[in-house]
Design a protein that fits this description.
It contains 6 helices and no strands. It has one domain. About 5% of the residues have low confidence. Helix 2 packs across helix 4, helix 3 packs across helix 4 and helix 4 crosses helix 6. The chain starts with a helix and ends with a helix. By secondary structure, it is mainly α.
Length: 181
């Protein structure tokens, strides 16, 4: 296999066989940053669960609701957990790709981690005050069990700060690399 073919298969080049352009790098890097940020958020939720700040994490409740609609009966535990993890990391990766693309086109005067936290706060609000309770998956933040809404807001801030840091760092590295050529 040539280097060109290998780069294409690993997502490091465009479908035309050449190197990725800046937009493609932003999407790819943003998706990876989103997965890293989702891992830090998931660790935060795990710690909160262990300390009794919340019972079942929201990604699991959302996955269970989706599986119930798809299958209409109780799914096995392995399927429930893998669906929750896949959905959570997929959502985080997609949000990371969108964030990186927006940062490329609309740079803001705020530090990248702060922009990430603002985005994550918006996602928390739209989800936990909007579509999640509207679909009957969970109560709104005002009516939820004590501890979970604040824990989830902090977990979203950690996601956003991590995402912003990773995307900001990748952008700085790309600019430094371009400038040194």
């Amino acid at each position: 296999m040539t280097d060109r073919e290998n780069n294409y298969r690993c997502g490091l080049s465009s479908d035309k066989g050449g190197p990725m352009n800046e937009g493609q790098r932003a999407v790819y890097g943003g998706a990876i940053a989103g997965m890293v940020a989702t891992a830090t958020m998931s660790a935060t939720m795990l710690v909160a669960h262990r300390f009794g700040l919340m019972h079942e994490p929201p990604p699991q409740r959302i996955a269970d609701a989706a599986l119930a609609v798809a299958g209409g009966r109780q799914a096995p535990d392995w399927l429930r957990k893998s669906t929750a993890a896949t959905g959570h990391f997929g959502f985080g990766a997609a949000l990371g790709a969108a964030f990186a693309t927006l940062q490329r086109h609309y740079p803001a005067p705020l530090a990248a981690p702060v922009r990430g936290m603002l985005l994550a706060s918006t996602v928390w609000f739209v989800s936990y005050q909007g579509w999640v309770p509207a679909l009957g998956i969970m109560p709104s933040a005002r009516r939820d069990q004590p501890g979970r809404p604040l824990t989830m807001l902090v977990a979203h801030w950690i996601y956003g700060a991590t995402l912003g840091f990773c995307v900001g760092r990748a952008r700085r590295t790309a600019r430094e690399t371009t400038a040194s050529r």
